[in-house]
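Ticket #4471: structure output looks truncated?

Reporter: J.K.
Steps to reproduce: submitted the chain below (183 residues) through the standard prediction queue, then opened the result file.
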Amino acid sequence: MCAALTARTRGGNSVRKALLLLVAAVVALSAAQAVSAQPTSFDARFQEFFGRSTPHPCSAPFLLCGIGEVAGFGSATSTFEILTFDFHPETACGDTTFRYTITLSGGGGTLILTGDGVVCFPGQSTFAPGAAKSFGNPFTLTFTWRVTGGTGVFTGATGSGTGVTKVAGESGHTVLSGTITLD
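Returned output as attached by the reporter:
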């Protein structure tokens, strides 16, 4: 009887140890996921071009394409596509929605942002003779953005922020800032 009791106790200890190891593994994985899912600041800067006089022309349907840097991720390219635009002549401004795609150099991933904002043309430059046929008329776009997709390191990312794009002539500059959470 003592031998049977000892065998049962040993078997119980093995099961107990296995359960404790399983619980410890689940807790460790949960902690690791919680750490990786912390929101982090997102900052990116791009030099944007219309592509008419640059060696890297923008393909349709993109208005702007650029090169720049995403803090913590490295160099990247960008494309800017207008989805809607509602111009208000009385203010020389318009409401817009857009898609902004950032692709990390070296194939690290792509981040897709969707946003809305207001684009304004300074002075009355948009009404100047020939403005409808020319390109590069100055404008400033102030906007908010949210993450709507991603691949690679940005798979499952969420987040939002603000930005500004200032354009004059052939080129412009976009600054994005906000918070993203990586899955």
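Triage note (M.O.): checked the attachment and the full token line is present. The chain has two domains: 1-36, 38-181.
Status: closed, working as intended.
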